[in-house]
Amino acid sequence: MAFQQHDTQFRVLSDEELDAWRAIPPAVASDCMNRTQVMNAAIKPIRDGQVLCGQARTVTTMVGDCGPICALISSARPGEIVMVDAGGVEDTAVWGGVMAEEAIHRQLGGAVIDGAIRDVADIRKAGFTMFCRSVVPRGPHHGFGGIIDGTISVAGVPVRSGDIVLGNDDGVVVVPLEQAATVLAAAQAHLLKEESWIRDIRSGVSIPKMFELPSAK
After folding, report:
1. What is this structure's pTM?
2. Which of 76, 105, 141, 158 is the most exposed place for a label (fewest CB within 10 A)?
3. How would you class 42 by CB atoms within 10 Å of its CB: exposed for 0-12, middle for 13-18, buried for 19 or more?
4. What is the DSSP code string of 107-167?
5. How confident is the model over 113-170, as pLDDT tens digits?
């Protein structure tokens, strides 16, 4: 079965815009979206300290099929992040070391897999930024089918090509592209507010007093 590719047009963010987003932690971005757009806790980086910041390219794949993902890797632009709805299946990998090598060669910004990967030691050694649900030796097939650049769900979050993907040790948050300016401004203001809270704490103000929390009885 052949896979489908949707026609997609989205505004490509400038380097300057992406630099501004690199200063925004996923937790702060989510706070500024009413604590939504957060992938569930199963999605984690394959090693500590990995950071994602870029625009999404989406792919839905049939269970155990890496074919559509390989096609997207070969066509994605530098800096873009491959977002994969693999159905959350944890015992058949849809990404491995060879795929990571091509993604590195094409200078992609990373990948998020709602499913399993393998060759994790090789991917860590290569330095590719990868978030996933699980790791397992069983590898994929290809040819069953899938969709590229459609609207997908990754670990409970809707994602479209062009959306902004932020990830760190906490997990992954997705900012809808049409909300980018509003969320960025709110997040920058929130970071300034957090800086003031930390200054107050270091000067001796307690958290209950700062936030006017009710006293214990």
Report:
1. 0.93
2. 105
3. middle
4. T--EEEEEEEE--HHHHHHHT--EEEEEE-S---B--S-EEESS-EEETTEEE-TT-EEEE
5. 999 999 999 999 999 999 999 999 999 988 768 999 999 999 999 999 999 999 999 9
